[in-house]
Amino acid sequence: MANAKVWLGDDAEAGARTTDDDGLAEFQDPGCGQVVVHAGSDGFKTVEEQLEVAGEEPILTELTLAPESVQENLEVRASTPGMEASSSETGELQPEVMKELPTVPTTVADTLARLPGLLRSADGEINISGTGEHHGAFVVNQADVTDPGTGKFGPTLPIDVVEAINVEKAPFRAEYGGFTSGVVSVETHRGGDKWHAELNDPFPDFRIRSGHIDGLRNSTPRLLLGGPAIHDRLYLITELQYYLDKHPNLTLPYPFNESKQELVNSFTQIDYILSARHLLSASFHLRPQHINYVNPEYFNPQPVTPSYAEHGYEGTIVDRLAVGNGTLVSLVSFQSFESWVGGHGDADMVLTPTGNTGNYFARQYRGAQRGEWMETWAPAQLTWMGRHDLKTGASVDLLENHGEFTANPIDIVDLAQVLLRRIAFNGGSAYALQDIGSAGFVEDHWTLRSGLALDDGIRLERQGAAGSFRMAPRAGVSWAPFKSGRTTFRAGYGRFYDRVPLDVYAFNHFPERTVTDFNPDGSVEEVSWYANVLGTDAGPSSLWVHNRHGFGGFAPRNATWKLQAEQRISPRVLLQGLYENSRSAGLVELEEFGAVSNGLQLQGGGRAIYRQTEVSARIDWKKGQQFFLSYVHSRAQGQLNDFNGFVGDFPLPLVRPDLFSNLPTDLPNRFLAWGRFGAPLSVYILPLVEFHTGLPYASLDELGNYVGMPNVSRYPAFFSADTRFVKDFKVRTKYTLRLSLSAFNLSNHFNALSVHANIADPQYGVFFGNYTRRYRGDLEVLF
Question: Which of 336, 325, 241, 330 shows the shortest CA–CA distance to 277?
Answer without folding.
Answer: 325
